[in-house]
Amino acid sequence: MILAIARRTAIFIVSVAVASIAVFLFMAVLPGDPAQVALGINATPELIAKTRAEFGTDRPLTTQYFDWIGGVLTGDFGRSYVTRDMIGPQLADRFGVTLWLVGAAMMIALVIAVPLGSFAAVRHRKASGTVISGASQLGVAVPAFLAGILLVQVFAVQWRLLPSGGWTPPNQDFGEFLRGLILPALALGLVQGAVLTRYVRSAVLDTLREDYLRTARAKGLMPGQALVRHGLRNAAVPVVTVLGLQLTTLLIGAVVVERVFVLPGLGSMLLDSVAARDLLTVQGIVLVLVIAALLVNFLVDLLYTVIDPRLRRS
């Protein structure tokens, strides 16, 4: 098992290194001169050349990459081309907001998907199971931003129960923090919960058809009891795979939802940086998102060995 973990860790490190090169090269080939963008169209050639030297964009690409990645490894993502502020502290603050949102949304999705998906599988030939399957199919078709707009209309505009947007840090006022987090987390979590419900139903339904479940039921256990005692762990293996993909989807979906609810997260920072053509900031944000996605996949691989003892033996 230790060898397997070491191998997966090495694969993760190599993947991060390759991803960093890909992100850097992609930003480097984009049209536009950061110095020209920062100074405006009326800047003189001498001032542009001076600004390029200040930004370091007049050096060879290999030198720029190693300077940039060396700083990233120590938490220094450089200075914004537009505001000249340090990017690292901004990334840390914004990423914290996004993590709260994604974590709350995933908890909501799991609370919805695991019981409803299991119930729909056990009752797959009953009207109640069909209703849950149909409702989950409808939920899959609803975009997260539309769900957010509908939630704002109902809970913020009509009923005035929750704020329509804004962000309060949890260390300032935890009650207001929770009130501001509920609607955006629901907007993300309800849609992802509908997607996950279908996968849970499929995985549990396959497990219910296994011979060991039939044996458990032949010994007198009810379908639900047999599933809880013997089936859920095996059904969890394909669900964990989808869960990793869903976490990555939530990170991307948070970009739009943060904009709808005016949250100062990583998604809002990315959109603002793209609009300002602040390529160094965009480069740092994209790298953080890619590393987060790779880290999720790495943790999912490790979780397989915890859930399935056969993988540990192999």
Relevant terms:
314 residues, mainly alpha, MetI-like fold, 13 helices
Description:
The structure is a single chain. The chain is mostly helical and 314 residues long. It has two domains: 2-73, no CATH class; 92-308, MetI-like fold. The protein is built from 13 helices and no strands. 79% of the residues lie in helices and 0% in strands.
Précis, in short:
It comes from Kibdelosporangium aridum. The chain has 314 residues and is mainly α.
Question: Which helices and strands, and how do they pair?
Answer:
Layout: H1 2-29, H2 34-39, H3 45-55, H4 61-73, H5 87-122, H6 127-140, H7 144-158, H8 174-208, H9 211-218, H10 223-260, H11 266-275, H12 279-307, H13 309-313
CATH topology of the largest domain: MetI-like fold
- Cα(first) to Cα(last) distance is 8 Å
Unreliable stretches (pLDDT < 50, length at least 5) are none
The helix tally amounts to 13
SSE order, one letter for each helix or strand: HHHHHHHHHHHHH
Mean pLDDT: 89
CATH class category name of the largest domain? Mainly Alpha
Domain count: 2
The assembly state of the depicted protein chains is single chain
What profile does the largest beta sheet have? none
CATH superfamily of the largest domain: MetI-like
What best-fitting shape do the alpha-carbon axes yield?
A: globular
- β-strand number: 0
What CATH architecture label of the largest domain applies? Orthogonal Bundle
Radius of gyration: 24 Å
Quickly give the structural class: mainly alpha
